Amino acid sequence: GDSVTQMEGPVTLSEEAFLTINCTYTATGYPSLFWYVQYPGEGLQLLLKATKADDKGSNKGFEATYRKETTSFHLEKGSVQVSDSAVYFCALRLYGNNRLAFGKGNQVVVIP
Amino acid sequence: DTEVTQTPKHLVMGMTNKKSLKCEQHMGHRAMYWYKQKAKKPPELMFVYSYEKLSINESVPSRFSPECPNSSLLNLHLHALQPEDSALYLCASSQARDESIPYEQYFGPGTRLTVT
Known about the structure:
- The complex is a heterodimer of chains A (112) and B (116).
- Chain A is 0% helix and 52% strand.
- Chain A is mainly β.
- In chain A, the strands form three sheets. In chain A, strands 2, 5, 6, 10, 11 and 12 form a six-stranded mixed sheet that branches. In chain A, strands 3-9-8-7 form a four-stranded antiparallel sheet, with no helix packed on it.
- In chain A, a hairpin with a 5-residue loop joins strand 5 (31-38) and strand 6.
- In chain B, a hairpin with a 6-residue loop joins strand 4 (31-37) and strand 5 (44-50).
- With 116 residues, chain B is mainly β.
- At the A-B interface, strand 5, strand 6 and strand 10 of A face strand 5, strand 9 and strand 10 of B.
């Protein structure tokens, strides 16, 4: 079945450091790919999306490129802030399918 | 406007109580969803309504009863819950599957439910 794999474990880094969170997927068709962010005590917010190969989604300094050849959608930010501390979920959705497949999520902690 | 609202924000209920969670969106979306989220886990899909009809029930116990009175509203009726049902309940909406893509889901802030 369709699935998303995120790197294991929390990510702790210092302010202004470079952030990368890995996401790979397995899908039978051509999925749309998403990154969602969940701040403490809140719901999920759509951070960025990409719908076809080589699309780059970007928002709030975050970027991710849909790589069909490596089935990946890694999230990057060049200089993180304390306010970026949150849980980040990678997700996919196939056309015509109402289900979102989520990765397990990564807790990101940014230290001043 | 990409807002999904949920009420109440917090709810504490006993195992014999009956309560309801409410969700509302005004984006013209025709698909609405209920998810359950435990701490440090991704959301788990419970129900999907498409064009106000229940299209997916992920084998959820009958003590959870969804209702979609119209295209903007989604309710989740709760009865005789167990302590293990304590969680964050998230509502989401999106374009329905017959409409244009990409159709991302927009989530509400959730209701934090505690069953005592």
